[in-house]
Amino acid sequence: MKLHIVKTKDELAQKAYDVLIDVIKSSDEVTLGLATGSSPEGIYEIFRAEKPDVSHVTTVNLDEYVGLAADHDQSYAYFMDQHLFNHLPFKATHLPNGLATDQAAECARYDEILAANTPDLQLLGIGTNGHIAFNEPGTSFELTTNVAELAPETVEANSRYFDSPADVPTHAFSMGIKSIMQAKKILLIASGEGKAEAIKGMIEGPVTNEMPASILQNHPDVTVIVDAEAGSLLK
User: Fold this and answer.
1) What's the chain's average pLDDT?
2) Which of 64, 106, 120, 136 is catalytic?
3) What is the pLDDT of residues 26-42, one digit of tens each?
4) Whether 129 is catalytic
5) How far apart are CA 179 and CA 111, in angstroms?
6) Which position among 61, 83, 120, 131 bears the catalytic label?
7) Which of the residues 61, 129, 158, 209 is marked catalytic?
8) What whole-number percentage of the chain has pLDDT above 70?
9) 22 annotated active-site
10) Is 45 a catalytic residue?
11) Strand partners, 174
12) DSSP string, 164-210
């Protein structure tokens, strides 16, 4: 696990972008695993400004809320369109379908997509409780795509994006930890003191499904980029 501690969110975004670009330029066919939320916004902003050639890049996203249509302004499909996909001509883009009526079939469909498009690099954020994608504490490390019940602290953290707490989804389709670990490289980013406990547990704590991100200690190629606040508890 390679750790980089930077001073600002802008520096974090640039350093992460550089890692992603190296992978994009490494081959004529590239698959990127992408994430949503506030953590990667700065990275996607640089993509929009720099407009690199991504015509050979296929993307697979980590997750999508159950019950939200792709055009709902809080869906992850909408987020990706607004921040990235509407601005750059990727070869193909994939997300779970939040409106799938047969959830087991949707999980199986997404597993097939992942089997055919193993990420050369998977971008991750981390929750304050150590979740990666929506694999909350207690989730088995052996799960592939699944319907995850969001922990109360995750629902609360997400409520800032919705008009009413009653509107916040409580479940999501999520790439499983087993699927995430199959990526050839993993890049995890975090900023702010609210992520400090999770970063400490991920890097210095035991490997336990009570701290889902700790499984990354067992991956052969992980880069972690955090700002000083997120890294403040590390020894």
Assistant:
1) 96
2) 136
3) 999 999 999 998 999 99
4) yes
5) 8
6) 131
7) 129
8) 100
9) no
10) no
11) 63, 146
12) SGGGS-SEEEE--HHHHHTSS-EEEEE-SGGGHHHHHHHHHS--BTT
